[in-house]
Amino acid sequence: MNDTLGDMRRSHHCNALGAADTGAQVVLMGWVQRRRDHGGVIFIDLRDREGITQVVFNPDRNAAVHEKAHAIRSEYVLAVRGVVEKRPEGMTNPALATGEIEVMVSELKILNRAQTPPFMIEDQVDVNENTRLASRHIDLRRPSLQSNIMMRHRAAAAARRYLNDQGFLDIETPFLTRSTPEGARDYLVPSRLNPGSFYALPQSPQLFKQLLMISGFDRYYQIVHCFRDEDLRADRQPEFTQIDMEMSFVGEEDIMAVSEGLISSVFQEVGRAAVSPPFARMTYQEAMERYGLDRPDTRFGLELCDISDIVAASGFHLFSNTVKKGGIVKALNAKGCAGFTRKQIDDFTDFVAVYRARGLAWIRVKEDEWQSPITKFFSEEEKQAMAARLDMQPGDLVFFGADQPGIVNESLGQLRNHLGKKLGLIDENAYEFVWITDFPMFEYDETEKRYQALHHPFTAPAEKDLEKLASDPVGMRSRAYDLVLNGSEIGGGSIRIHQKDVQVRVLEALGMDRAEYEEKFGFLLSALDSGAPPHGGIAFGFDRLMTILCNTSSIREVIAFPKTQKGACLMTAAPASATAAQLGELGLKVRRVEQS
Amino acid sequence: MNDTLGDMRRSHHCNALGAADTGAQVVLMGWVQRRRDHGGVIFIDLRDREGITQVVFNPDRNAAVHEKAHAIRSEYVLAVRGVVEKRPEGMTNPALATGEIEVMVSELKILNRAQTPPFMIEDQVDVNENTRLASRHIDLRRPSLQSNIMMRHRAAAAARRYLNDQGFLDIETPFLTRSTPEGARDYLVPSRLNPGSFYALPQSPQLFKQLLMISGFDRYYQIVHCFRDEDLRADRQPEFTQIDMEMSFVGEEDIMAVSEGLISSVFQEVGRAAVSPPFARMTYQEAMERYGLDRPDTRFGLELCDISDIVAASGFHLFSNTVKKGGIVKALNAKGCAGFTRKQIDDFTDFVAVYRARGLAWIRVKEDEWQSPITKFFSEEEKQAMAARLDMQPGDLVFFGADQPGIVNESLGQLRNHLGKKLGLIDENAYEFVWITDFPMFEYDETEKRYQALHHPFTAPAEKDLEKLASDPVGMRSRAYDLVLNGSEIGGGSIRIHQKDVQVRVLEALGMDRAEYEEKFGFLLSALDSGAPPHGGIAFGFDRLMTILCNTSSIREVIAFPKTQKGACLMTAAPASATAAQLGELGLKVRRVEQS
């Protein structure tokens, strides 16, 4: 039988005591991290969320307590009363905040016992992730997860503090909302009181926060869960957390300034390095040209370079034909990489194939020649022009992509990031922020044969481009902006459409007729017609931000109870089947699931 | 065409300027609350969330701007630049913080126009609630809703500040969880990646917060949405907000002390009166005896009084038979109410009938007699005993309930609250808190013929009652506690079971066999066996708390986007039908809905 807590209460956490406390009577409570028996004395590393303190059971000091301590095993939960003593000469542990002292125990309560854990509770544990997720309550005891979750708490608190100080109101928006089958897929929630009808879980509080601006709340924020029923990639979760904001009577500069203040506050609280706004700015077009991606990692160079004009008339038909057909040819000079083997180069070819590149041409720059299957196709003039534009020096390895712009940019942009990591070009302690601006308003969806909003249909077009709405939708820029950190998009937002007529024209450009937009967005249009102020906002992906701040590669390391890529919680075994009674009340039937 | 904001930026909110600012150049932005034309001059009350400032368009000062101002209508969105001037003698408005000044406008932008609102934007608006809910974006402009939502923000911020200072960690728990068909009905979310399987939206983060304690996080909190798919009563919403907490290595006293600190912080921020812990305590039994309810309104007396012993042998067979059959007879002395008419008394009879009382006996105490159909059945001795116990004085009106204890207590307890309001016994500015303790662990469910947990199955039994688990479940007390404020339960919690064997025995007492509890709660039992500390917690109903703090009768007045009693959002028309494609992906079919 376990001991009960009774009236015993902690006096200190397990990271609190030092030499200055010598002689103090203390009560500590926590978990057994490690037990050692040495010379008949039992030493326990007692752990809580704050740290570790060594507690000692010495038969010469208290024989009964020492006797009781024999039962102690790993992860048992203890309460100990004792006196703080300096550790003997040579026994101090400078790696531990409490390493100068130990607690000589005079009273021991074994509050709970524990089965041997399924894996060691330490960071370098070599166990597959599913095992850890199935016993998440034990996994969460590991120091790195403890630290990440506590850091997340501090980051959220810093964000709230900043936003409260800036006059933002934390206003809750509903989770049971209306499905708007635009953008990503909704999670549906069947309504029992309205059988056959469904709520949707929000992909973001977008329309509600706009309505709050229309209501006059002026500055809104929320740290809030959002939901997208997508096929889950490595770094996606079915539910994710946004720091969501909206402001009235503002333009892009105002939102960027507040965002920079917010990010600075959070990084000051938990970051590894200082952050100094204002952040760099770059247009979407420049980002695509120089980095191939709209989320450039600006911690290193290795920029892409367009050589379409140089090779347009070359004898290398793959290049010249590509240019003729409206494609582009871009190159990437991996300085000093001429030593890469053929095998390594083939691996890069495989790498870009993932991004639909059908090949990866390359030139190895030697002291006296260009080593490459394609050198022979170029004239001396073309070679000189290339060498000059790409700064080709002996020892360099140049990669080429030739295809439609989308494929070239994506594949070389990804290759650039890949090489940046591989070549050690990245300062892992640096935080490089850049605002991406002047996004296109629409993109043409070849599959659905219609225009789609690059951000969302409520994003305002650039004022000067408004007249292009009918004539040249793809040429329009929007008032959207993304914040990119170290090559990850951590936030995105826009100035919104606040005028009903503009909103109607944008919805029409997206292919909706009046009946459709009135049915889906009638309430928004009516609200825009009721005195809507100019407004805009932004949302930050809190999980991704924490992933970067915690210096981890997986989003699951910054979420207390994450799901697998199949959307399962391995601990509680969710999702699970519903009872017939539950389905009956909802008026639903599960159809036979086809096995494919 | 509307004016664009351009580079114009606000210098002040609409509640900021006073006589000290006279002569300042300012820029204000907001909505047109009211327009008056007087002597050729146009006066606008410009409103934002902070307040109202009078802005003036005077043709003698700026003819062009005055001309433009003619177009202004109610709820238009304006930006004005101008100079602060003292209002002329006799024109100041002491009811307004800015009532000493006005802004003489030199530049006007009409940022947006507005249709005439469907109802006036003022508090005393006489329009039915559904109309207001359908245009919630306009409804939210009313001063009381603006104030309530801002007060809610401040209350949440105060709660977080206090809990952060106390070492609590804000940790997010999942919304897509496993259904545990205990207690209330779950909202289900079909899983597309696992067709035929369902998540459930959490009724509370109960098990996750316990797991966090087992993981060693020590102090957890969250202000979080929870979901219950119940038939909605007036003051229920399908989703509601809890301030949810859990602590390790604690007993009841610790949680009550932290709770009192939390509540005091919130009330200090937004309350109408000071709150001074420690709060009163009362056992469940005492609350039932004196008030008939486990959430007694202790702002007034009018207590119930048991007279079963006095009437057990009386000639009034309704009373004596009730006592013989194990029922009770209780009375309520409405002092000074002998003047109530027969019609009024009949209304009270109807009132208690709602709570299943089959009648309401009464005695009017006159100077020289008891006026009542039942007086004749009592002996002199019985009458004397009653008069003494109930302090029956001329002018009093005594009500009697006779039935099974549950019915008597509920109906007379509700009648007591009803009379308290009707008789004006309640100080509407008082905050009367009381902790209710020593709840029964189980209650017997006559319908299902089994025991049910009065709180939830994870509530610890009182240590001294543990041995009654097999022999006398109904006689057991639990370690649960509720916090009651002015007759509303605003919070409830308990010390939890932290030992696996106790948890198993409680689940067995609830009628589960091993297969069932392993399937439903296997992960919890395994976690309790992995080093679970003693722990406990509490959750406060934030919506109800705000209802009291905002002094409003409806929960919908403290929620930005509430739903109707049918669970509908009248603005967005949620819930709505799903598309065939959506249902197909989920492997679901909507069955024909029976019209009943």
UniProtKB/TrEMBL annotation, chains A, B:
Catalytic activity: tRNA(Asx) + L-aspartate + ATP = L-aspartyl-tRNA(Asx) + AMP + diphosphate
Compartment list: Cytoplasm
Positions with a binding annotation for ATP: 228-230, 237, 489, 541-544
GO biological process, one term: aspartyl-tRNA aminoacylation
A GO term from the CC aspect: cytoplasm
Keywords assigned by UniProt, alphabetized: Aminoacyl-tRNA synthetase, ATP-binding, Cytoplasm, Ligase, Nucleotide-binding, Protein biosynthesis
Site annotation Important for tRNA non-discrimination: residues: 38, 90
Role noted for this protein: Aspartyl-tRNA synthetase with relaxed tRNA specificity since it is able to aspartylate not only its cognate tRNA(Asp) but also tRNA(Asn). Reaction proceeds in two steps: L-aspartate is first activated by ATP to form Asp-AMP and then transferred to the acceptor end of tRNA(Asp/Asn).
HAMAP family assigned: Asp_tRNA_synth_type1
Name by which UniProt lists this protein: Aspartate--tRNA(Asp/Asn) ligase
UniProt source species: Desulfosalsimonas propionicica
Gene: aspS
